[in-house]
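Hexosyltransferase
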Amino acid sequence: AAAMRLATLLAALRPALPLVLGLSLGCSLSLLRASWGPGGTEEQCPGRAAIPGGARPEAAGVRPGPGHEEFRPRIVPYYRDPNKPFKKVLRTRYIQTELGFHERLFVAVLTSKATLNTLAVAVNKTVAHHFPRLLYFTGLRSAKVPHGMVLVAHGDERPIWLMYETMYYIHQHFGSDYDWFYIMQDDTYAQAEQVKALVTHLSINQDVYLGRAEEFIGGDEQARYCHGGFGYLLSRSLLLKLHPHLDSCRNEILSVRPDEWLGRCIIDFLGITCVSQLQGQHYRTYELAKNAEPEKEEEEEFQAALAVHPVSDMTLMYRLHKHFSRIQLERAYQEIEELQMQIRNLTSLTPAGEAGLTWPVGINAPFLPKSRFEVISWDYFTEQHLFSCLDGSPKCELSGASKADVSDIIESALEQLNSRYQPLLRFSKRQLLNGYRRFDPTRGMEYTLDLLLEAVTQKGHSHVLVKRVSLVRPLSKVEIIPMPYVTEATRVQLVLPLTVQDLDFVANFLDMYAMNTLDTHDNALLTLLFIYHPYDAQRVSQVDVFAGVKAMVGELEKRYAEVKIPWISVKTEVPSQVKLMDIVSKKHPVDTLFFLASVWTEINMEFLNRCRMNTISNWQVFFPVHFQEFNPALVYRGEQTASSSTDFLRDGHFDRHSFAEACFYNSDYMTARTKLAADILDRDEVLESMEVFDVFLHYSGLHLFRAVEPGLVQKYALRSCNPRLSEELYHRCVLSNLEGLASRSHLAMALFEQEQANST
């Protein structure tokens, strides 16, 4: 019986036996570690608290030994001296600037007065657009600098002096902005993409002097210098360490070659020699023989070269660029084919199977709309006409970039058909029957073509057939367009034109201006432009139609003692926007940032900051598209207006017909206005048919940034359209009023209710 009870007990405990053994083993190992670990036999010192959270003793005040640093987050408490006045902190919106990031690569090309217009131009046309920043350095400046080249002239043609001044200039102007510095001569052809790929695989924590290592003339030491003809790469840390010794090198080191001089300077003062291989990366070069033919060079060393030297003339530079570009293109196509094959092999292993394979392989699948409002429409075209025009007309002539696009896509379709069916069939185009295209933001431009083709067999028999082909022009690598640096500290000068019809809305404008700019101490000033009709101007001494507005301005100036709001009075029957801006422009400095507003604009800090950021002097002007709320009488029909945050920007639309708001610099306006004056001569009546947008569009080479602006929300109001303006401006104003009434669904509901009421 005892044996039976023991067997029953063991059977009950068997499932828990691994747990008991694991706990026992863990406790035993913990006791052993406590007994043999450092300080395990000592008692805790009296008066010293135990370190919470299992932290190491170093965190309790003991300095850690070398190699055992603890990188722990440290919270710095915020403290502000109550005796000092509060100052608003302006932080940049560029995270790269705030975190101190550096650009990757800076390229310097050493040239001369004799080769500036030949070899230097060839370098600029072949590789300059591949590098993020490239400057040319020369001793003496020529009479005319080639277009598109940034040249730095030092004033002395001596090679050593040119190298010294170049290194000093690079450190002074770009030493804190870039991680790598590539120095080359204008008789060097460098594969730009290979150079950029090289620096991405190197660590910036080392002092790097990388190039084609050469022995010093007459020297028997192990040190090497980098040959200047094949280019060389310097790291930022090496440049910073070298800068203090440049003057000593110039005075103490004698050399004929500038690359030897620089190499000797780096070796003597920094102890760093030139290397051709670093961190697993090879700097491969090729010395070009005299009268060499790049197309006939088949050596592997030449095909893999990163830099080729010497290049004797411009034609040879272009031939080298063509040869290496063809090699890179073949490698890219081969890599694409390999990736597509891998995608096909892996797709069969996915849950979707072969059905999940999209065409073209490797390109994103077409956009799938979730509602009818998201459907991307196709544009119909032929070889002569386009049936979706920018001006809204149903048919327009195919020209310019659209015509070139259609011609290119037809040629590509024929090329693909012939490459697939030759030598059995050879296709030639007779006519484009139908063409459709649409832009899919997830993948690119899609085309569908119905082609009337003539197919010729190997025996010469021909046959006419119709074939439908589909093509995709995929979105390529996204590039960030370099833009000049701007800040949010720029003062904005608001300009508000006012007519008699605007008097009912001025009070709200001034209230919003005071609340969002004066109370927040934003750097924004206001100038009022009173537009008097000639009849009102004659009676201004008896009855001033703008007396109420002037009284409100006086109240603001009393409330804010440091604020002055000037006004300008103008008498005209036709308040042309350009003529009014001419008056304001003459009364302000050329560096003034204007914000041309309307009386329905509600000023806020968010938009003012975007006005500052999107307007760049001598580069870009900003024309925001404000959000216009619909007529509440039609939208809500007597119901209470929704006020929740979820209804923001719901009952309205972005008014693309309005160009009343604009941000631009006075200098840019004056430049464009000067070109306009030379074009129209004394025909001032032309100005009545133009707006400021038209001036910048036709008479300036600036970027016109036209974008929707959610920060500009205007309440519904029926605008007064002046019939004295041009027909186009008047028609645009009427369209703005009509489209601002309500949406189609709201208008349909209003008509339905009206018909229901009439029927009863």
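thats it. Residues 35-69, 642-647 have pLDDT under 50 and may be disordered. DSSP finds 22 helices and 27 strands in the chain. bye
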